[in-house]
Amino acid sequence: MTSICHLLSGEDEDYFVQHEQVEWEILNKLLQHHGFNPIHLADPQTKDLTAVVLLGKQSGIEIRHVVATLIKDTERRQALIRDLIQSNNELKNDLRQQQSKASRYEQRASDLEHIVEDVKGKIQDLESDFLAKDSQQKNLIEQLEREKQDSQVHHQQLKQKLHEQEETILRLQKKLYMVVTEEEQRIERRNKIFHKFHKRVPKTHSAFDQQLLDETQNHRTQQDWRKDEVDETVRKRREHSRNKGKNKYSVPDTISNRKTLVKVYEDYLQESRAKNEKIFQKQWNYKFLGNGDGKDEKEGKWDSMKIEDIDYMQGSDCKRFLKNLCKEIQIQDVNNLIPAVRERSKLAAACPKLQKILNDINSVVSNGTKSQKLFLQSHAELGVGNILMYENLVSTVEKWAEQLMALKDLHRSLKKLSKLGPWKLVDLSDPSHEICVQDLQLIVDEILNNLMNKKNMTGLQESKQPLEAIVSHFQKLFDVTSLSGVYPRMNEVYSKLGEISNVMRSLKQLLGLDDSISPHVLVNKIEKLCSSINEDACRQVQHLLGTQDIDSIINKLKEHEEFFPAFYALMQELLQILEIDSLDYVLPTVRALKLQ
């Protein structure tokens, strides 16, 4: 064992020896606490210097300090090693947990693959159902085409009959004109005979003559009415045939609900069907109207239906017409007749547009192919029979709505699954955007890709030692004892570095310097700029006050404080007297007053 002896001299030798012994005893206790042998002090009275080591006062203090520092550094290193061992154990536990989670995620991914396969099978079943319904719709449309051809043939026959009836009406009008002419001549001859034999003025307005004239007028009026009715029927048929080919109509703003539109469209189709049947029945029965004499009031017929003859219509006929019209429109108050008719006309104008909307919906339901759309457009003129094409739309749309709700649930489940994984998926979906199958497919693909990448991460276990060395280096660099203390210090360093970089970049941009300029050049530039600004400020103050002495500057400021309030009050009164708003106009105004 090595011994150390100190050489001391002076008056405080005993005191220093005691102090040195106390210091060395403290150091020996520290050495013994860590398992080292103590350092023995030699007796100062010994004369054998071969077995001892002589140290000076300063050397002894330095040795004690070095030994204490080494022991503390050893303690710190031991604590660091313990922390590293604990961190290593925690990393191992985390690795085992991540491996177990990865296995669970793989199992869930396989389950999701089975679910996706089931969904694909259901989609195929739906496609087959849609194809079957499409074939049914095609058969129905072919049947409607045949019905359309039959109706066109019947329409041609009716037009031919109508033409024959028009010719008959013309012949009857000619015959009626001849009959009226002969009747007038007969009446004239009769009056002349009465005047000749009875020597009196003929009574042109006798009851008998008036009765004959009334009967003739009624017969002519009924013939005109029949001709006008036939012309009106032909015009309506032509307008109806032209309107079938149109595709663009204005839809009232008041109709906003789809179910309401469908209901109004069905009502209009039923009403149109009833009116068409009535018109066809009237055209079919026109051949029986030639023998009428216009005197049967029980059948509800009147002389003229023209607007210019309304003033000459009988009150009973007008009342009967209004009553039938109110009954047909189903209103109880005559004041509501015009609004009801106007509303019916709007609905009638909206029905073709509604039919086009339903055709578009039907084309979308039928897979939306080009051929199907053209097929539907070519059959858009079927009229009333088209209602049979839309019977299955409601059930199909309801099924699609259920599928959309199921898509939302599936999307929610996939989002939860993606959040359970160790990866972080970037959510690019818009909350206001509707969920579609492509979004679900994208999420499933991302999960599968992350699972495949997870299998390639097993090589990280081999790089554990370099990671531990990096962690130890950062702990020494930031002077922290645990792994959790590295992240705050690193964030603090990066934030400070970012702030300094931003400040340096801003200063370089303000001063117009290049980005490659070093920091000390920038500091020198700022120092020169500040000194020049201070010199310019002092120079401007001196130039403004006209003096370079501090006392003179203070006196100038005091004089300004005494003079300015009085000058300001004087100028305000002067501006008020001269009735001006700016000091620039004071001198011109005073000169103008002086010239006056």
TrEMBL record:
Keyword Electron transport listed: no
Signal peptide residue numbers: none
Ranges of biased composition (kind: Basic residues): 235-247
Biological-process GO terms, alphabetical: cilium assembly; regulation of microtubule cytoskeleton organization
UniProt keyword terms in alphabetical order: Coiled coil, Cytoplasm, Cytoskeleton, TPR repeat
Coiled coil: 81-175
UniProt-recorded Gene Ontology molecular function terms: gamma-tubulin binding
InterPro entries associated with the record: CEP70 (IPR037692)
Region Disordered: start-end pairs: 214-252
Protein origin, superkingdom: Eukaryota
Record function comment: Plays a role in the organization of both preexisting and nascent microtubules in interphase cells. During mitosis, required for the organization and orientation of the mitotic spindle.
Oligomer status and interactors: Directly interacts with tubulin-gamma; this interaction determines centrosomal localization.
Name of the protein in question: Centrosomal protein of 70 kDa
Source organism per UniProt: Callorhinchus milii (Ghost shark)
